[in-house]
Design a protein that fits this description.
Elements: E1 2-3, E2 9-10, H1 20-23, H2 55-67, H3 80-92
Antiparallel strand pairs: 1-2
Bound molecules: protoporphyrin IX containing FE.
Length: about 90
C-alpha cells in the first residue's frame, strides 16, 4: 500500500517491490539498480534476491529466461561449451 502525493492510496502486488520499498513511491515498484559485473567472481550469491548460488545456477536462470521469452532471442540455447566459455569469462572479471 502506497500513499500518493494527493493523499490517496494505491496497492501494488509484487513478489519483490524493489526500489519502491526504499522510496515509498509506487511508480518505483519492480525497479532495481543493476550492478556492474566487475568483481563478480567474488560476490556470489547472485541477483538482488541472491537466488543463484553460483554461475551454474545463474546460467540456468538465463536459459529458462530465453526458453520462455515472448519473442525469439538471438541466444536461444547454451551448449555445454557456451556455458564453460561464459563461466570462464565471468571468472576473468575479477
Ligand atoms: C549470457 C548472458 C548473460 C550473462 C552471463 C549475465 C550475467 C549476469 C550476472 C553475473 C548478474 C548478477 C549480478 C550480481 O548479482 O551482482 C546479472 C544480473 C542482471 N542481468 Fe544479466 N547476464 C546475461 C544476460 C542478461 C540479459 C539478456 C538481460 C536483460 C534482458 C540481463 C539483465 C540483468 C539484470 C536486470 C540483472 C540484475 C538482476 C537482479 O539483481 O536481480 N542480463 N547478469
Amino acid at each position: 500500500m502506497f500513499t500518493l502525493a494527493d493523499g490517496t492510496t494505491t496497492e501494488v502486488s509484487s513478489p519483490d517491490p524493489g526500489r519502491a520499498l526504499i522510496t515509498g513511491n509506487a511508480a518505483d515498484a519492480n525497479l532495481f539498480k543493476t550492478p556492474s559485473l566487475w568483481g563478480i567472481n567474488r560476490t556470489a550469491p547472485y541477483f538482488h534476491d541472491h537466488s543463484a548460488r553460483d554461475f551454474d545456477e545463474l546460467l540456468d536462470h538465463y536459459q529458462a529466461f530465453f526458453d520462455t521469452a515472448p519473442t525469439p532471442l538471438p541466444v536461444a540455447h547454451f551448449t555445454h561449451q557456451d556455458r564453460e566459455d561464459l563461466k570462464a569469462f565471468l571468472r576473468l572479471l575479477d
